Every structure is written in C-alpha cells, then in structure tokens.
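Deliverable D5.2: sample structural annotation.
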Amino acid sequence: MKRKGLAIGIILLFVTTSIIPSLPANISSNVAIITPVQLIINNDGSGNPTDMKVNIPAYIPDSGITPTLTINFTIVGSNSSETTAYYGDDPWEDWKNITVYGDILYPVDHTTLYHVGITGDWNCCVTPTQPGGVIALRIDWPGNGSAIDYIQIINGTFVNPSVESFPWGQDFNLTVRVTDMDWAPIKNAEVYLIWEEDDIEFNHTTGNNKLGNGLNGEYTFWITREDQGVIPPKNITFAARWYAGFWGYAKVTMEQPIDPPIVYINDDYNSSTPGWGYNHFNEIQDGINAVAENGTVLVYNGTYKENINANKSLILLGENKHTTFIDGNTSKYGVNITADNVVISGFTIQNSSEGYGIIISSNNNRITDNIISDNMVGIGTYYGNPFELPAFPGSGYNTITNNLIIRNEGCGILLNGQNNTVNGNIISQTEYGIMLAVAINNNLSNNIISENEVGVFIISSYNNTVYRNNISHNEKLGVSNFGTSSDSILQNNFIGNGQNAYFNQPILTRIRILKNILHIPICRSVWDQNYWDRPRILPYMIPGLISLIRGPIIEAPYIFDYFQIDWHPAKEPNKIL
C-alpha cells in the first residue's frame, strides 16, 4: 500500500511541474544539485529527523490549530574567495529566494519560513497534505547558484473538496470527499472544519455512511452566512482522519465576494456590524460604491451629510422620506446622477444652498416620492452647453413624480434636455416653480405649482406641454414663455396668480437660437381649455409682446404688443389627478 501511494504522489507531482520547478523522477534522501551551493536538511520534522520521510501530522480536535512540521535546513556555499558562506547571515539574504512547494497546505511566508542562528540555518513550518506526495525545498542564491532537496510524504488520507473557493456573503453548500491511500472512499471518517486565520474549529462530523455524511466518502457542510464572519479573503482548512489514524488536509478559500445586489445603510453601523465593509455601511456613498450594477441601496432613518455620486444604475431607497435625510451641507449638490437608470425615492434632500438638491446629467432616471427642500435648485437636468456642437444633446427621458419640492431659493425644477416628464409633484415657495431652458419635448402634468414668484417659465425651448396643472397663487406670473416655439398649455387651472400668463417672443432671438442653432421650426404656442380664475364663456386673451431686438431688454420703438388666445376656456376647474 505504501509503494502504491508513493507512485500516486509522484504522478500528481509530475502534473504540477508545468508551474513549479522540476522534480527528478527518482527521489532519494538528501540529494542536492551539484553546485557551489548546498541545501542540507538537518531535521525533516518527524520522529526520525534525517530519513527525509514524514507522515501527515495529526490534528488535535477542538484546538482550531492546523498542525505543521518544522523543517530545519542549512544553506551553505562559497564566496568569491572560496571560503564558506552561509545564506541568511547577511541582511539582504531573505526568505524570498527560498522556494518551498509540493504537497503542502498553505504557501510559506516570512512567518513560516525564517532564519535562525548565524550559520545559514532556516526553519520552515508546513502542513503536508497527501500521502505519496513530496515537499521540495529550493534555494536560488544570487551570484552563487541553486540547490534543491526533498522530503517524501508517506502515510495519510486524501481530502478533496468539491470546489477550490466560494464567495463570501451567502450560505454555501460545500462537499469534501475523503479516501484512503488506495483511493477507496472512507465512510466513517472524522472531518473537522477550521477557520485557518482565526484558529477556530467551527464544524465537525463523524461519518455514518449516509447521504452527505460518509456515503461514497462524501461529507457535506452548510457554510452559513453566520459562520463566515467578517469580509474575506480567508481560508477553511479541512482536517480528516479514518480508522487507521491517518490524517489528511485540504483548504477552500472564501473569496472576496461578487458585488452584493442589496446593501444596507444605517448611521449607527460600525466595524462590529455583521457584513460591515461588504453590504453594511454607515455612509450612502460607500453603499453605492459597493452595490452591484442595477442593485438596491436601502437607507435607514438618519441624517447623512454627504454629497452623493450615483455613478451606476441602481435604486436608492430611503426608509421614510420624513426621517431619512440627505444633507448637502451647503455644497453644489446633494445627489449627482451621472449614470442611466437610477431611481431615488424615500428621502428628504436638503441644504445644498449653493447648488442642486439633485442634479441629473444622464438618461432614464426616476425621482419619486421625496421631499426636496432648502436648496438653490431642487431638481435639475443638465447636459452641457446646448449651444455648443452638437447643437442639442440626445439626452433625457427622466421622470420626476410625486415629490414635494419646497423652499428652494432659485428654482424648484430646472429642465434642460429632452423628453423629460414632471408629473404629480407639489412645487412651492421658490422664485421659479418650474423652469424649462433650452428644453425639447418635455411634459409637465398634474402638478400643483403654487406660491412661487413665477409658476412656470419657459425660455428658448420647443414643443413642451403644460397639461392639467394647478397653477395658483403665484406672486407675479402663472406661466411665462420667452423665445419659444410650439408650446402647448392645455387644461390647466389658473387661480389667484398676480398675472395668469404672459409671453415675450423676440423675433431675432427665436431665429438665432431656435432655427439657426437648434435647427427647430418656429411656430406659435397653443393655449386651450384652461380655467382662468372663473368660468369663461368668451375666449380668453393672453397678453404679450413681440420685439425686434435680441434679448430681454425692451426698448419701446422695437416692441409690438400682441396677444394669444385660449379659444375654449374651461367653465369649471379641470380635474387634476
């Protein structure tokens, strides 16, 4: 049986020679390459320290410590004057030029391979893994040469996990197969699982020849999320023995996980929180950085003084919009959305007094069921200078719905871009409730726009629709447009505004911006079926002017009073959803 195990070990070792230094076909005890350098094994770590033959060491149950053999060896050579030199005695001669490989459980490092004494002596602590295998020790001494020697692994047990690694963060079903030195399945093995870095034994079983516990030599363990502890990488060591008392070892690495699909944010979380650093954080930006593309960031109640960059597609969901705050702390933005397909819901976003509560420069985003307050601009879309080439960016398709947008100093919603939808919001107590600036094909519907200085202001824009909004009690104007084309103002309720509507259409400005730069046609606006303070029987006239100068500065000789007409004013307020 021992001879057959040795042959198997040599075959396995031959397979590995494509990635490690070659081993000779005939392994003998204490054979060194004939060079000026010698690697001499003084003690192989076994009961017979110089025969270069070891058994796999025994694990002590409940200890949590994987056993090792301590191999002592000497590296000696000749220097330029042909006197004896010992490797390691000079400070630049470190462990990195020594290679220990073969059938060992974990690679060596400075803690397990170290210099002792002053005559080239070294200790190496390793765990042999397979009967019939080999431990190889090699020195590549710069300027002197190389040497190699071997230790044979005689008795032990084969332990073969079903995988080499698995991701941290989820329950995982892990199977290991245990066989004797003739590769026969062991049905009654004792199998122990150890967290290697923590020296903790966390699971074990004794086989009874049943499915998952010894049948066909297979043993199955659930590695639960609770077992896994803090974020990896770290290793599980399998220690197994059979009735002959022979042991074997294998390892499975728990790897850095894939990006989590859901992360959790709570300002009370800290490094002692399970999942900390992986899917549990105390800052929203950390959660966004960690979550998978198209994942969800769940934010619990609290105040988060952050300037957040949403730079991947995701859902950012607050626990309660009245108690979950993103505080921009007077900065240029609270949330900056640069990725497409972002959803933000369930927050109060406040105090970006020098900029935007939310600024969007991407497409197909959805802002819903938030409170946006006390910013310079509540929500804005911006795609760069629209007057630079290309003439107009093909961006937009964002939806802003069911938000309370209040007490923002300059503007509640500022739209630049195309095909955005603003629906079902309350916009109040700001200078401009909604402003459309160089905007195309946007739709404003079913909003309550009240108690602002100006309810809706449209400038240098084309084909925008203002439909079924309550535009009321705005101090100066309900709706105003300047230098626009093809506006549709339909079925709105104008109630109690300083002035319900006004337009200014400078001819040269419209030609220069709309036609020459944006390449869009110049057409009149349409006002129809709006409710104007009270029931109307006759058509309602919207006052305005047409000027022959460029810009908002009005000089009397160039101004022509004009008006547009709502031919079918509503006799009762329109129903707003």
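Annotation notes: The two ends are 85 Å apart (CA to CA). Confidence is low (pLDDT under 50) at residues 1-34.
The annotation will be released with the project's public dataset once the embargo ends.
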